[in-house]
Amino acid sequence: MRGSEFGFEDPLLGEEERLVSLLALNRGLFSAWEAVCRRLRGYSALVGEELEANPPALAYLARLTGLVQRAEQWPKEAGGLFGSEREFESLSLRPLLEGTVDRCAKLLAPERTLRLQPLGCEMVVPGIFFELQQVLVRVLLRYAREQAGNVQDIVLSARELVLDEAAAALLGGTVPAGQIVQITVGEDGEAPVPTDLEPFWDVVLGEGTDTVPDLRVIQVYGTILQHGGDLRFRRTETGLQLSILLPATIRRQEMQVVSDIQDQSLYGTETILLVDDEDMIWDVIIDMLQELGYSVVLAGNGLEAIEIYRENPGNIDLVLLDMIMPELDGHQAFFKLREINPAVRVLLSSGYVSEDDVRDVLEAGAAGFLRKPYRMVELARKVRSILDA
Fold it and tell me: pLDDT at position 253, please?
């Protein structure tokens, strides 16, 4: 959107922008409702321990608990009405952050400074550019307003790190395990450990919070959730430091073709169906497979893969299947392929989930798992071991 804040009555808003904003607000409100219900459930359990000798009060408490449990189902049902899958593009983080800083610097008071800390590497995230930029603009401007008397110099920083399964679980599963990007707004550019940060709703609904949460904040949080991310806080002497966590996309340079494999047994002539929605690395994987001698058929999502496989019976020797895709993910696509051909050979691949996360698919008959980014020799060995089995 064009302004630093949103308002559905803004005549400058296009229909698409208005719809996107409404969907993000709904996602944030669903999350708020779930957070309130969790707190009510927790408080009810504590009160129940104090009312053990008061049966009438326990009866009312049981009714309250039942209402909370029913209310918890509404966000899940409502979320299904709006759909959860979105088609994202791979975005380079540097121009996104630079544009945000340039835009916000013009809106700050002259005596305040805003700078972007140099990025240690090139970072890529899946998303929609104008939505993520609006999130960053609003987060920065809100931070600047709330820290007006405490912080004069604001630093925006970003780093890439690997979130393991244990850390992802501690964060509540909002951000998947794997490579993530952490964008931090503060006064020193220091990025705290993600698991040391406080959850969004613990702060917004925490003790001493007397005002109703701003719908603009909820809408921002909803947009972050739609991008598979999370917004968290760290308390400092001057106030709250903010960190946005987003899943990272595999970069092209992490999967370069190295055509010096001398072992001729790792080459082949079979046909492989590549199923992946990461257009930034399509040509890299295709080059790897073709360099190894294979013929490659490309499908951009699970639905395309099902159609191609069905229309080419007996002509596809192996399916290289990405697990995280729009329209039909790898998990669903695998079982659809099995319906067409129970003997289909499928090699799973992902940069966002681990082998443990796809254990049910492997136990159901998938031939193996390859974690992105991978080297050409790793791909060659995995493919050959499946085809030669």
Answer: 58
